[in-house]
Structure formats: structure tokens, C-alpha cells
Amino acid sequence: MQEFSRQNLLVTDSKGAAIFKWVDPQSGKCIGAFEQGTTIDFEKYKKRGTEKHIEANSQADYGFMVTKGSPKNLHYFESEIDLASYLSLNGLADDTRYISMNGLKKATVTRQAVVAAQQLGQNPDSIVLNVDNDEAGLNFVKDMQSRFSLQHVDGTTSELVDGTPSKDAGGKDWNDVLIATHDRDQQLQVRHERARRIRAEGLTR
Fold first, then answer.
1. What's the CA gap between 3 and 8, in Å, rounded?
2. Is beta strand 96-100 parallel, antiparallel or unpaired with respect to 161-162?
3. How far apart are CA 135 and CA 7, in angstroms?
């Protein structure tokens, strides 16, 4: 999140909601935004708990994105929160663009692949679909893999990569995995601290 703020891609409004700016990587202009509320109200917002919506007049087939270097590798996510969670776990890779689709949107995948190709002068090296590990997400990956592949300048082709998180890692999406990872880390810290105290007590006896 700090990197998003540093690049002026994330701001807060007067209500304290997080505003993820959609910036056109070619023009540098803001062409849309997604609002993620921070006030939890299940009665008002039902299962999702908070206000979430794409701002009016946002450019179709775009979304929130952050890039390090050139867009040789594209990673797609179902939401800004999943994107941010993935980066918290893995960091920003060189020459990689991370894109939120705000759902499962084939048009966003293809449009942003074209944008990256225009910037590079050739197709990206890879496309990774980091969507949810559920029925809808897995079907999306299979459908995209059956429809599209990347043609490279050396004559080779590569299929789109299934980047869904393993449920063994802690959940169906990258935010679940981040939370589970933090929980495991905290449990390890507690065990290490307990072991340290036992060793210390043994030395003082």
C-alpha cells in the first residue's frame, strides 16, 4: 500500500474510503477509480461488509494497476485487495505489471495485453491469472487458456499461466492467504518466545 501511495495511485476521500486510481500507462492520465470503503456495516452492505464500487465514467477494460519497470509480465487479479495482498507476500517483481479486473473480465485481460504489447513493441513474455481458487475462477482460467496464447518473436508460444493460490496456503484468494500467513507467523513467534523463556528459566535455576 505504501508503494501505491508513493506513486499517487492510492488516496483517501473525506469519508476515509480508499480510492484506487486507474492510470492509463500510455498517457499517464487518470481514467477511472475504484472506491473501497473502510467502514464495516453488514446490515447496509450485506456480505461484502463495506462500500465497494467503480466510479462513474471510468474507462472500460481498464483497472487499477501498478508497474515496476516495463510490462513484460502481466499479473491479473479479481480485486485491488487481492493484488495488494499478493504484493505483500511476494513483493514487486522487475518488469512486471499487476492489474485488477474488478471481477473476472476477459476484455480487461485482452485489452491490457494489447496495451502492454504496444508499449513493448512485441507481446508480453507471460500472462498470469492470479484469480480466486473457486469454481468461477478456475473456469475463467480454463476458458482463457483455451482461447488465447502468447506468440513470441522467436516463433514460440506460451499459454496463460494459472496463478490461483493453493488452498493449502490458507484460502481461496490472495487476501485469505495473506491473513493465514500472518496468523502462522504470529503462532511461530509465540512458540519461539515460549521456547526462549523456557531456556532462560533453565539457565537461571
1. 9
2. unpaired
3. 35
Alpha carbon distance 84, 178 (integer Å)? 10
Class of domain 61-204: alpha beta
In the three-class reduction of DSSP (H, G, I as helix; E, B as strand; rest coil), residue 2 is classed as helix
Side chain identity at 179, as an amino acid letter?
Answer: I
Q: Distance between alpha carbon 63 and the CA centroid of its chain, in Å? A: 11
DSSP symbols for 61-116: T---EEEESS-SEEEEESSHHHHHHHHHHH-PPTTEEEEE-SS--HHHHHHHHHHH
pLDDT per position as a tens digit, 153-165:
999 999 999 999 9
Measured distance CA(73)–CA(153) in Å, rounded: 15
Which cell numbers hold the place of 97? 505489471
Q: pLDDT tens digits for 64-123?
A: 999 999 999 999 999 999 999 999 999 999 999 999 999 999 999 999 999 999 999 999
Entry pTM: 0.84
